[in-house]
Amino acid sequence: MAHKGFTRNFPPLKILTEEQVGAIYKGVLTVLEQTGIRFESKKALKLFAENGCKVDFKTYMVHFPPMLVEECLRKAPSAYFIKSRDPKDSLMIGGDTIYFRASVGMRAADPDTGERHRPTLQESIDGVKVLDALDNTHHLDAYCPYADVKGIPPIMQYTINAACKFKYSTKITRTAHVAGSGQFSMKMAHVCGMDINANMEASPPLTWYNDAIENVFWACEVPEYSHFPILFADGGIMAGTAPATFAGSLVTSNAEIISGVVMAQLIQPGKPTAVSHFVFPMDMRYGHPGFGKIETSLHNVGFNQFWKRIGIPIYNCAGSTFSLAKNIGYQIGAEKMQNLIISALSGANVIAVTGGLFGELTWSPELAVLDNDLCGAVGYFIKGFEVNDETLAIDLISEVGSIPGMYLDKKHTQKWWKKEFYIPQVMDTLPYDAWVKEGKKNALDYAKERVKEILATHEVSVPLTEEQDKKIDNTIEEAMVYYREKGMLSEQDVTNCRKTWELAH
Prior knowledge:
It is built from 18 helices and 18 strands. It is α/β, with parallel strands linked by helices. The chain folds into three domains: 6-15 and 73-382, TIM Barrel (Alpha-Beta Barrel), CATH 3.20.20.480; 389-420, no CATH class; 469-503. Helix 10 links the parallel strand 16 (314-316) and strand 17. It starts with 5 loop residues before the first strand and ends with a helix. The mean pLDDT is 96.
């Protein structure tokens, strides 16, 4: 059993001809073979050398024969099942099904002013509870909701973040891979009887760091994790770490991702795989990523068309995820919606949306509630509508005729309006007089009320058992020992982290 998500019932949007897609693919193969990709891992270099790649162990560069690339791409499945401990939150990734994913932010944002602060662990837990309650948010993220929680040492943020999601939600998530943190997320997922997306994020241009590479080896070589899918992500900035042109940056992005896919398929043929797109244009006035810009959507459509041709599931994580808006107003809604619907129309299977405000720097539970309505609206749109004898309603039209005919009191209307009309949960849809009577509330006011309601009433659908809960705590202790032995945590860091975790529970 898997959550049905939303199904796109018409062909995906395309902006490139088949010849143009072929030219990009040829460019990718050329870069992989001639320029090569840097893999900062002796273990990975040895694997590639044993499988016919040209490897320079001094410069860490790997050159890929085109036949090997195409063979490995064929081995990656076109869809995969990812299991939650609650069957209703399991997902089938691939095909024409679309799910929506939570977004992230380092810190919490005041929904009115945009002012940011370091959230407490309780605020982070509350954010997870809100996301768990949202019906159109199907998938969580490695860093959501917050990536800079007060009282948690930086190196422990990823493990504590994962533990909160497993304790307070049954929704699918993914690992981080910073400094070996992915191994602890995978262990917790296994303990909870869940699957998790193992993560491998490139370091553009054309480089994979050892942390990302190790995450793939764990997900492929540890027997308990061998069924976990891997999510390969790019991350270039056009005109910075990628070419300024759309075609050129699609070449570098896809070369990075494909080299990772090849590695996984060499370790474990048939490994479930998805590809994730996270590319932005640079704002040439100030030098930061152009979050929310329409260029991102253009890039997403080209990326989606490329991978639809190959047949591997697609995540879109740029565009609808973020904006440069600092507070919740016209700009954030406009930028999110334009990019969200274009990703959905062009064939993405999972789209990151809910909660992200100013870049990756802030997150808001109230915005997550509002974004949930956007997801519902886009999901409603992509399903299209039925055309059959009953929906054509020819007999009914003849019966009602012209004025003073009326459809409101007809059984056909009573049956079909709830199927055909989309009803948002927190958007202001009142007529003017009712709006005045209700206190002139706007959508943000309703979102604030919804957040309070969720925190007062929501409970995770399938709580952890006492044994699972204890094993999560043990994994946190194990992670602290691991980082302390590596010199990345002091004894005081461990004490503070343990105290913060215990106080929140």
